[in-house]
Design goal:
Blueprint lengths: L4 H25 L1 H22 L6 H14 L4 E4 L3 E4 H27 L10 H13 L25 H11 L1
Helix pairs in contact: 1-2, 1-3, 2-5, 3-4, 3-5
Length: 174
């Protein structure tokens, strides 16, 4: 491991970003919900590490924090390189695409290792983190989906007045 100023700066920058995202999630859903989300995520990752006999990591769990905030606030703007504005929902799709690439790379690594009698199951950690995400935020996932354009509105028909309304009008006029 090389310890450099750049890696230290990058680590502090990532911690700051995760802190900000955690604060936003906590404000949107409440402290209990956020704490349960992260606690269950750590618990699932640890159980997965024990069952898979791999070392546990919170890397993918921390990435699902970003996915959760993008689900709740899809129109939130992030500044790429502090300049280029990008909506959170688009970055969430990039995250999901990169996670799929990680899964395929893990599968390839596992199949290559099988030739030598080594079974690598660490590629399942992104799935465990996503299961935790869907457990807590799955009902809001449709916020990330593109919305269909509204149908063209023709001349709207006025709804017929209800019977109660008609009776009220008769009483007032008569």
């Amino acid at each position: 491991n090389d310890f450099s100023l750049f890696s230290t700066f990058f680590s502090f920058l990532m911690l700051f970003c995760y802190y900000q995202i955690g604060q936003m999630l906590e404000q949107q859903r409440g402290t209990l919900h956020f704490n349960l989300y992260y606690l269950f995520g750590i618990l699932f990752m640890d159980i997965g590490a024990l069952l898979l006999r791999e070392s546990a990591t919170t890397y993918y769990l921390n990435l699902t924090l970003f996915l959760a905030i993008a689900t709740i606030l899809p129109e939130l703007i992030f500044r790429f390189y502090f300049i280029i504005p990008i909506k959170a929902k688009y970055l969430a799709w990039v995250y999901l695409g990169l996670t799929l690439i990680d899964l395929f790379r893990g599968l390839i690594t596992m199949f290559r290792g099988l030739r030598f009698g080594v079974v690598y199951l660490g590629w399942l950690f992104p799935i465990i983190a996503l299961l935790n995400y869907f457990l807590f935020y799955g009902s809001s996932f449709r916020n990330l989906l593109p919305q269909s354009p509204p149908l063209p509105q023709g001349r709207r028909r006025q709804p017929a007045p209800s019977r109660c309304r008609q009776a009220l009008c008769r009483r007032r006029s008569g």
